[in-house]
Q: What sequence folds into this?
């Protein structure tokens, strides 16, 4: 695959534990010139399980994404297990192949940092193996040749297992402490299962049938050509009888196992050799005692020790082993390997660890980095030494709480906080407060709709009451209005200042009652004064804005000084590990090393058999992520989550809006009766158009997203929906807005969506519904409110966006119920767009307060009730209120 080609990206979307894999097209269509990608995708659309099965035969794939590499890894492991199953020639379509516990652990460790990794577990892997086994059963049932021929036909490099087994077991401890036996599998005609008998029986079974005997022993013949040890056993005839082996002979056998397996011989060996459980390792325990201070720079004690398996050994005992001959040695009741090179390398690593200890204690950051790559810290080759880094009693208690917020002490919330947190939100607040007190950077990465904002506001209110420091909140400009409304609603006692531009000079050194400063990423990059303050807390919303470490914006944000830092993002881990490094370089600088060091580390993870477990172990304590699909969360959530999403007017929108207000004020002075009523209703429509996009009001067709606050909010929401490969319905009351919205969303999803409005033929509507709810991923449908509000079943979507408001709850709910209805198996999230400071916000408040709009007034009168207001009330309703300080 070419480096510049867009790759297929694997996402794991299904809910619960009954997950199925799903490979979809990337954000741009597959390169038509790339036959491999096209063929892979076409096969997926035809039969996902079959595609994955045959993907396991493909090798020498370069430049594939980590997610596709992971799927390839699963398929390759399955085919490898299949090729090493000697009984498969007898069982064929009745083969039952499930992953071993070791395979499950290896696969779980190899899951890369991609969207959906939270769903990958042992049950998911078992289900994949079950599906692949069913594919194999169907394929081999229709195949006339042997299984070996079938596998070799699809990949000639596959080493197909024969029917011969080599067994090595421990014997009584004497001159011959090991026993060897060669067996072969023969079909049990009664139940189609194989029985395993000593190889000597084959001489009797195939007496006079030299061709069949030679075929059975072909794998042994190959091994004899490559191994002097096996060659001698064959020539002497000892291979056909049980043998006693010396430790030296057993060591030769164990070292040559990979050679025998390449020849197609299946080997059974002691678990301690297979799992290396008796191997020599350097164990480093960090943080046994509580440090004098907290924070990533706090100094921790650490203790290096030597172990053979679970048994500790001294440096002197290791030096004594170095004096022995290489091979197997029986030490403390266990057989261990004496490998001079590994012993010497481990001893040198132990001495370097002791020197590091003598120079002083290590920081918490260094301790956690040591888990990631201890070899780098000790300046050794990690291939030569097995290093196990573990947490001491104090550090273990800390990380346990970070990974499980339920263990953190419950903190009371002030009565000044005007919201009731759900159970998981309260745990999130406790976790954030705990992280702040420790001085650790924290990433709040809850799924969209679980209330990250309200948890942060609860923390800010707690900080206001318990510290004298100042906090800085940075976000995309489109979210400013949303945060302002939420803070005023839930924490009205917080004194905040919003920094929209640098025209107004703010003296940050001046002591006043401001608790919180709120600004945008763009302003944070330009305002040098922010770097002069030692902030008590710096919070980033939509923290993926700093995922590119090379941009001026990211560099500026990372220069801010703070006692604690928090990053908020619904997509903390994407397909590029450099994004993860950049996020943690802000939160806990140095935890993942320098950019160069981290790049060197990730080079080792590009192989499909990569082990991501160490990296996860380091970063997971600092990331709190809960999912809507988690039963412990979903049980506490309503099935339909409605939320107001505030947008702010852009400069162009403000000019047009204020201009219309002035024009209306002038005309109202002379208008009367029907003329006045018509003027007001027409003006309402124009104000709505301006709030949607200036081009709708002006009758233009460019619709640049940066000129509309609503389009910017649409981008924020739909980028996350795109990442999760979910689907969304967007309702607008204006038919003419359906295409501009759809055109914009196509650039967000890089896939076409659907449009349904009053002009859509009735027959075509059912086709659109079927396509939207079908197997192919159609990310969005834009509907006019009246045409799409009734008679449609669109349960494929679990997001509903009301782009503009009808100001009729009944009509809006009817539209929402296109997704929230019988057949919907997911939580439905409803986003109601409101432009802050405009008529949209003011009428929304009036509806909420149910002042004169109670009962059936709205359904009966539409918007005509507004025309009954006097001129003063109308101007108060229409006048734009610029967001300011509180």
A:
């Amino acid at each position: 695959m070419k480096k510049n080609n867009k790759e297929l990206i694997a996402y794991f979307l299904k809910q619960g534990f009954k997950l199925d894999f799903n490979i979809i097209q990337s954000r741009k269509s597959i390169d038509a010139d790339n036959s491999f990608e096209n063929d892979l995708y076409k096969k997926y659309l035809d039969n996902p399980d079959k595609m994955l099965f045959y993907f396991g035969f493909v090798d020498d794939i370069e430049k594939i994404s980590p997610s596709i590499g992971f799927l390839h890894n699963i398929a390759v492991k399955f085919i490898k297990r299949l090729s090493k199953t000697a009984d498969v020639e007898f069982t064929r379509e009745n083969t039952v192949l499930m992953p071993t516990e070791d395979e499950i652990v290896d696969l779980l460790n190899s899951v890369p940092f991609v969207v959906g990794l939270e769903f990958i577990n042992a049950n998911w892997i078992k289900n994949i193996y079950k599906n692949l086994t069913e594919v194999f059963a169907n394929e081999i049932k229709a195949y006339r040749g042997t299984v070996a021929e079938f596998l070799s036909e699809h990949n000639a490099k596959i080493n197909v297992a024969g029917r011969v087994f080599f067994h090595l077991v421990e014997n009584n401890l004497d001159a011959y402490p090991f026993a060897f036996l060669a067996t072969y599998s023969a079909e049990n005609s009664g139940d189609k299962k194989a029985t395993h008998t000593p190889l000597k029986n084959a001489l009797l079974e195939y007496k006079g049938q030299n061709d069949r005997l030679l075929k059975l022993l072909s794998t042994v013949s190959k091994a004899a050509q490559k191994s002097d040890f096996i060659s001698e056993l064959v020539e002497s005839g000892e291979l056909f009888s049980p043998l006693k082996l010396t430790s030296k002979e057993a060591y030769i056998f164990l070292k040559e196992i990979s050679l025998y397996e390449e020849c197609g011989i299946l080997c059974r060996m002691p678990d301690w050799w297979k799992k290396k459980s008796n191997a020599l390792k350097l164990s480093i325990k960090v943080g046994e005692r509580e440090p004098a201070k907290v924070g990533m720079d706090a100094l921790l004690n650490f203790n290096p020790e030597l172990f053979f398996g679970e048994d500790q050994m001294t440096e002197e005992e290791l030096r004594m082993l170095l004096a022995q001959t290489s091979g197997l040695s029986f030490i403390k009741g266990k057989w261990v390997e004496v490998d001079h090179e590994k012993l010497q390398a481990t001893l040198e690593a132990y001495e370097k660890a002791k020197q590091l200890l003598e120079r002083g204690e290590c920081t918490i950051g260094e301790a956690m980095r040591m888990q990631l790559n201890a070899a780098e810290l000790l300046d050794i080759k990690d291939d030569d030494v097995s290093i196990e880094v573990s947490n001491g009693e104090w550090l273990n208690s800390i990380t346990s709480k970070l990974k499980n917020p339920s263990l953190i002490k419950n903190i009371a919330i002030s009565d000044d906080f005007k919201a009731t947190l759900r159970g998981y939100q309260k745990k999130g607040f406790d976790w954030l407060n705990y992280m702040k007190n420790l001085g650790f950077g924290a990433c709040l990465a809850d799924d969209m709709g679980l209330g990250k904002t309200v948890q942060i506001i609860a923390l800010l209110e707690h900080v206001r009451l318990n510290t004298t420091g100042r906090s800085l909140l940075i976000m995309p400009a489109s979210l400013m209005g949303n945060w302002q409304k939420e803070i005023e609603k839930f924490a009205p006692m917080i004194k905040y200042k919003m920094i929209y531009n640098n025209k107004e000079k703010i003296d940050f050194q001046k002591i006043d009652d401001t608790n919180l400063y709120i600004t945008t990423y763009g302003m944070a990059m330009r305002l040098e004064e922010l770097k002069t303050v030692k902030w008590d807390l710096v919070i980033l919303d939509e923290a993926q804005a700093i995922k590119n470490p090379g941009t001026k914006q990211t560099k500026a944000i990372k220069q801010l000084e703070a006692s604690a830092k928090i990053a908020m993002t619904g997509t903390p881990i994407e397909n590029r590990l450099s994004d993860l490094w950049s996020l943690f370089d802000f939160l806990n600088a140095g935890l993942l090393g320098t950019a160069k060091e981290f790049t060197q580390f990730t080079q080792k993870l590009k192989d499909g058999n990569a082990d991501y477990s160490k990296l996860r172990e380091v970063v997971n304590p600092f990331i709190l992520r809960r999912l809507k699909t988690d039963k412990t969360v979903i049980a506490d959530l309503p099935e339909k989550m409605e939320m107001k999403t505030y947008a702010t007017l852009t400069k162009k929108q403000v000019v047009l809006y204020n201009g219309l207000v002035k024009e209306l004020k002038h005309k109202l002075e002379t208008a009367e009766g029907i003329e006045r009523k018509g003027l007001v209703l027409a003006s309402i429509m124009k104000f709505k158009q301006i709030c949607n996009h200036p081009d709708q009001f002006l009758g233009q067709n460019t619709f640049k997203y940066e000129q509309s606050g609503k389009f910017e909010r649409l981008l924020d929401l739909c980028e996350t929906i795109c990442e999760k490969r979910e689907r969304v319905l967007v309702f607008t009351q204006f038919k003419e807005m359906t295409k501009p919205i759809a055109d914009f969303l196509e650039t967000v999803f890089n896939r076409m969506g659907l449009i349904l409005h009053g002009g859509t033929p009735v027959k075509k509507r059912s086709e659109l519904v079927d396509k939207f709810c079908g197997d192919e991923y159609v990310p969005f449908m834009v509907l006019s409110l009246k045409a799409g509000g009734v008679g449609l079943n669109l349960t494929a979507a679990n997001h509903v966006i009301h782009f503009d408001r009808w100001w009729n709850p009944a009509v809006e709910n009817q539209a929402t119920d296109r997704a929230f209805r019988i057949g919907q198996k997911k939580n439905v999230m409803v986003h109601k767009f409101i432009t802050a400071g405009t008529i949209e916000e003011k009428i929304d408040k009036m509806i909420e307060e149910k002042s004169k709009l109670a009962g059936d007034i709205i359904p009966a009168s539409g918007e005509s009730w507004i025309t009954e207001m006097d001129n003063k009330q109308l101007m108060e309703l229409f006048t734009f209120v610029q967001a300011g300080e509180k």
Summary: The radius of gyration is 34 Å. The CA atoms of residues 318 and 347 lie 8 Å apart.
